[in-house]
Amino acid sequence: MKTRSFLMAALVSALALSSVQAQQITGTPGSPSATQVINGNQLPPPPLEFRGVIKETAPDSKPYWPPRVVPPKGAPNVLLIMTDDQGYGVSGSFGGVIPTPAMDRIAKAGLRYTQFHSTALCSPTRAALITGRNHHSVGFGVIGEMSTGFPGYDSVITPDKATIGTILRDNGYATSWFGKNHNTPTYQYSVAGPYDQWPSGMGFEYFYGFMGGETDQWTPYLFRDHTQIFPFVGKKDYNLITDMADEAIKYMGDLNAAAPDKPFFVYYVPGGTHSPHQPKLEWREKFKGKFDQGWEKTREQIIANQKRLGIIPANTQLTPWPDGQAEYAGAKLPKWDSLTEIQKKLYAREAENFAGYVAYTDHEIGRVIQAVEDMGKLDNTIIIYISGDNGTSAEGTLEGTFNQMTAYNGILTLPEAEQLLHYEDWGQAKTYPHMAVGWTWAFDTPFKWTKQIASHFGGTRQGMVISWPGHIKDLGGIRTQFHHIIDIVPTILEVTGVKAPEEVNGIKQKPIEGVSMAYTFDAANAKAPSKRDTQYFEMFGNRGIYHDGWYACTTPPEPVWLLGGKPLPPISDYKWELYNIADDYSQNNDLAAKEPAKLKEMQALFLTEAKKYQVLPLDNSILPRLLTPRPSATAGQTVFTYTGEKAGIPVGNAPSILNKDYTITAEITVPEGGAEGMIVTLGGRFGGYGLFLQKGRPVFVYNLLDLERFRWEGGVGAIVDQDLFGKALKPGKHTIVFDFKYDGPGPAKGGTGVLSVDGKELDRKTIKHTIPILMSIDETLDVGLDTRSGVDDSYELPFRFTGTIDKLTFKLGQSQMTAEAQKAAAEGLKRATD
């Protein structure tokens, strides 16, 4: 028995030793300085057996510290950068007319990729980027704001698809995320969580950025980890683009001071250049007069630059300007010479502002790159810099807009005089702007179409550069292999020597769907065949399929700049196109009529890929998906109650007063000496409402997208007795009610609002129109103060309420946005400017 026990103990000891050895422990095992490189099959790694000695007392025992997990020896730092809404013709590095010296720096120190692709839209591209899997595979077939209850579209990255953040963190990297998120379900933005879909739950130990698709860069809806912060308060020159760079530089410096040998993975994704286009003024002014030539000549200049740089083939054809011909499904953009002088002046300013935003964003990226060099870490850092998560945005309408919220609500044309009022401050704090589609098309040169269009390279072709000193030696080289955003994760894993896990937190992992691009780093493989031979594309029913140099795609049935306001034909009725992109870089020569057999083959291949990656069911609806109920913590709730001061309740968890009757009741206590301040507000300068006391008098303001404001207050048209008329509320308890009756059914209708105090009516007004779709994107519901921007200019922030809010109640009626009304929403919205 003793012999058997001895043999068993020896076997267990040998197995434990072999397990330790498999983990590649360095240093003296059990010592505080010991480290281990794990095999990475299981994350986090299982705990190692305690190999010290435990006796009755500490002096007779021997401690044993578990070794610290580190990546494989020589694993580089990773700086992954991606800008927003920039098509192939934006950056100077890829032939654009806007200088991007930081991107040039990486291109000169590494490689430029000329056939690299996104998904055509923000959060889908980002989900694919951090998981290495197709966007439908990880629930992001569309942006989270349009999520539906199908696996490919629910905006949930399931735990069987761990992100690169989780993988690198559990292999010993310090992981951080700066800038735009847009991969947390919109109904989980609140402090209620859960946090598994926040950056922290996706493996990023530090997050500094904004949660949704966009934010005001002057007063951002900003988070540090799970907490909303307000770094802009009291700072006159604040802009998030600079603040984010400052924060990343500080983080890397602090990390270097605390653990100089610990490698980092920094995911750096600024809001530039998504709308609102908000650069500092000096950056806009750098481009004054640079776009007076107009968009067609700008296209010609860009394609000439691209050929000169060698980043498009010399025989590339410039696709035709859309003038309504069949290949553009009736999409038509005005020629520059057809514009009035006032239009030219306004549209040129829009482009100057956008260009300033591009250059400003690149400049701050350059500061982050320089900080890596200043720390002495550049030689061991792989830098991946992607220009845009999709093509340039066409969401600014044919004219551009000083307030993008108007376009999001279907108002596609604004009075010229209203636009010109903002000519001087375009891009500054009093605007939330976007540019005219003519510029969008130009900045996607040489391709057709724009952001949102997954079928054409104007929506999906991105400039991308990679540097890795000592490993990429073909400095300034160009690579033409066909690759996709899902190929970044496997590239990072290969260069770091980290294995894709088979199991994470006890859950078996689905395979990563990308392929590593590291084979292209060697100069000998500069012209090697692409290791990605097939890739599907799909967004809003527009489809594309690449295979071995061929590309088949659908023709978008309507211009994307209509923003879903027009019903689309059945998906089965879409026209298909066919291109041999090996010879036709810009998708200019449609071969569908000449090669019907090839087209049929490609269509069948698309369907095969769609079934494989959760693309089905295909859905080309936009507005109905935007208005789809989602499983928030307040879903279906019609009565909301608050007490005291409550700031920062996200839009998805706040009561929605859109297209319905509603009653807001505030039970307050006014102290001796009177009270004033904000009782409740949602939104701000660019659309929203507020109920407050001003000089002690009740006021309700409704801001119709910064186009018109309506104000109810005691003393203006009041029809009550003189005791309340125009006077401040006396100390004591009062009940303020704002009751609104909506003139539905349908969107953007008007209604009648009544403001009353203690049962006595103070003011009654009827308005013709209301906001139908989006009152606010990122300005929260604030109770007892106003945190971001005011609904009008009659008060100063934070306008904290100086009384007591005993009880605040919202009672909501049923939505009157009927299914039929949803389809006709664009017509109702157009009337809002009549």
Give the tally of structural domains. Answer: 3
Mean pLDDT: 92
Regarding CATH, which class of the largest domain?
Alpha Beta
Percent of residues in helices = 10-25%
Can you describe what's shown?
The chain is α+β, with helices and mostly antiparallel strands. It folds into three domains: 2-69, no CATH class; 77-612, Alkaline Phosphatase, subunit A (3-Layer(aba) Sandwich); 639-833, Jelly Rolls (Sandwich), CATH 2.60.120. The protein is built from 17 helices and 33 strands. The strands form six sheets. Strands 5, 6, 7, 8, 9, 10, 11, 12, 13, 14 and 15 form an eleven-stranded mixed beta sheet that branches. A hairpin with a 2-residue loop joins β25 (677-684) and β26. α5 (240-258) runs parallel beside α8 (341-374). The radius of gyration is 29 Å and the shape is globular. The model is unreliable at 1-21, 716-722 and 822-834 (pLDDT under 50).
Which SSEs are present, and which pair or pack?
Elements (H helix, E strand, L loop, with lengths): L1 H21 L2 E2 L8 E2 L5 E2 L24 E2 L7 E6 L18 H8 L1 E8 L4 H10 L32 H7 L3 E7 L25 E5 L11 E3 L2 E3 L10 H19 L5 E6 L11 H5 L9 H15 L31 H34 L6 E7 L16 H5 L7 H5 L16 H6 L14 H4 E7 L9 E3 L3 E2 L3 H9 L6 E2 L2 E2 L25 E6 L2 E6 L2 E5 L21 E5 L15 H17 L10 H4 L12 E4 L3 E4 L12 E9 L6 E8 L2 E8 L2 E8 L3 E6 L18 E11 L8 E7 L2 E8 L13 E3 L20 E9 L6 H5 L1 H6 L4
Parallel strand pairs: 2-4, 3-16, 5-11, 5-12, 6-14, 6-15, 7-8, 7-11
Antiparallel strand pairs: 1-2, 6-13, 8-9, 9-10, 12-13, 16-17, 18-19, 19-20, 20-21, 22-33, 23-32, 24-29, 24-33, 25-26, 25-32, 26-27, 27-28, 29-30, 30-31
Helix pairs in contact: 5-8
Enzyme class: hydrolase
InterPro entries: Alkaline_phosphatase_core_sf (IPR017850), Sulfatase (IPR050738), Sulfatase_CS (IPR024607), Sulfatase_N (IPR000917)
Keywords: Calcium, Hydrolase, Metal-binding, Signal
